[in-house]
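User: I'm designing a mutation panel for 43kDa postsynaptic protein and want to avoid disrupting the core. Could you give me a predicted structure to guide residue selection? Please restate the sequence first so the numbering is unambiguous.

Assistant: Good idea. Sequence first, for numbering, then the predicted structure tokens:
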Amino acid sequence: MTSTMDDDQVHHEVVKFGINVKPLSVLANNAHQQVPSPVLVHIQFLHQLHYEFAQYTDPWSETIMTSGGYLVSRDGSCQLYLTELKSFNLSFSLLSPELSKLGVAQDMHQEIVERIVECAKNVQADRNVALVPIQVEVLRSATIWQCPQCSWELLIQREAALNQRMSRMKRFLVSPATAIRSGDEGGENNTTSSCSVCLEEFVAGALAVRTPCSHDFHEECLATWIKKKPSCPICRFLMPI
């Protein structure tokens, strides 16, 4: 399962992680086979990250209240020869890209590879051993908390972005004699006399706004929409700042 975090939830993050590397059962060749073969190591990766959200109950309290979370889980695998795996430099160059694909932070790669190399060195492999499975579990927990100062700064930033976007809109009075002109998604102009956000008719003499993509709305309706999605409600044109 993959998830994304909303911008207003990411302020301060404390991450803890644990690594579990262990060899699984060894798959052997035919016991009567006399010719030794290279020992192959199959590494199974599991990367789990549990996010938990928290925030102060009020600006003057040190009490933190958690508000749930979610789990991100990714898995993968790769194969290396045991002789390669016993060399840290070679193993790191081969395993680090695999860990990056799973979303493992770069500063964790060295410790993980060191654990894998140590595990490989402890494997008792003779000429009857064909495959050595190794399981690597990377378990992380991240507490993401929101403080009053961050909330206030984020609010100021959003208000500033909203004001800049709204300043680009053309304001005009609705004419009683002519309908409001508004383009459709295909670029052709259609005649409409209602706001596409609230679906209410424009009143003659009322103030309306026209977006850079030539669509007309009530100013308050458009501002409310842009607070949530900075794009045109009709054609999804991204409003410039």
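For picking mutation sites, this is relevant: The helical segments are 82-85, 88-101, 109-121, 148-167, 219-228. Confidence is low (pLDDT under 50) at residues 1-10, 31-35, 178-191.
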